[in-house]
Structure formats: C-alpha cells, structure tokens
Design a protein that fits this description.
Length: 145
C-alpha cells in the first residue's frame, strides 16, 4: 500500500495481482510467467524460452549449459548481467567460438514521492512511478562491459 498514490498504481497493481495469483509452485515456471506478463505490459516482443523444456540439457551445469544452448542456437555471442563476471570465463566461451559480454544498466533517476531519489529499490518502484515508454527507455540505457 506504500505505492497507493503512485502515478501508475492502478495498472501495476493489476499486473502484480495477476502475477501473484498464479498458482504455479515451480519457481522457474513462476518467473517465466512473470516475465511473459511484464513483457506483455511493456509491449516487449523479445521471445522468452523455457530452457529446461526446450534444450533438454539439465544434466549440464553452469557455464557449460549456457555454451550448449548457444551452440544449439548457432549463437556467436552471449550477453549476461554484470553479476555473472564471477561465474563465467571469457576464455572458455571464446574457445567455443562465442563472444562473452556483460551488460550493466546505466544509472537512472526518476521522480518518487520524496524530495531525494532512492535508487536500486525494485522494478516495482520503477513501474509505479514511470510510464511504459519511460521504463522501456530505461531498459535501453545500458553499457557492455
């Protein structure tokens, strides 16, 4: 209820209710459903694939599984969030013919309730205070590292 007076509360509350009311017990399937609903809301056309049901490689672990998926997709580049720098080896990917890059969001700011901006709260905070177009603009503000 902290967001009740936020400018986009009604739309986001409806979206979150739909996501939360999903009775899926499998966390992977719940996240998949959440991403599909968020993409629908933002009108993002990126195809999201449930890797566990498509690639049938659950016996392969960690970065080797990602490399296997890239090979099956004929990908020559893989981009991961910057937190993956600790998990993935550029050398291993390159030895398999795949460029490994990491993506980091640029610093964003937007009007919240208070006078001073509080960063890194959540995607819910961003959605509550920004239009769909503004959120999509934020998603386009990144750098490869």
């Amino acid at each position: 209820m902290s967001y009740k007076k936020a400018p986009y509360f009604a739309d986001i509350y409806k979206l979150l209710s739909e996501i939360i009311q999903n009775n899926e017990n499998n966390i992977s399937k719940f996240i998949y459903f959440s991403l599909i609903k968020l993409n629908e809301y933002l009108n993002i056309k990126t195809k999201i694939v449930e890797s566990s049901s498509v690639y049938l490689n659950s016996e392969i672990k960690q970065q080797h599984r990602i490399i296997d998926i890239c090979k099956k997709e004929n990908a020559d580049e893989y981009i991961n969030l910057s937190g993956g720098k600790e998990l993935y080896s550029r050398e291993l990917f390159e030895s398999n013919g795949i460029r490994l890059n990491f993506i980091k969001s640029k610093e964003i700011q937007y009007k919240q309730f208070g006078n001073s901006f509080v960063d890194s709260l959540s995607i819910i905070d961003i959605l509550m205070f920004n239009s769909k177009d503004k959120v999509k603009m934020f998603l386009d503000e990144y750098e490869l590292i």
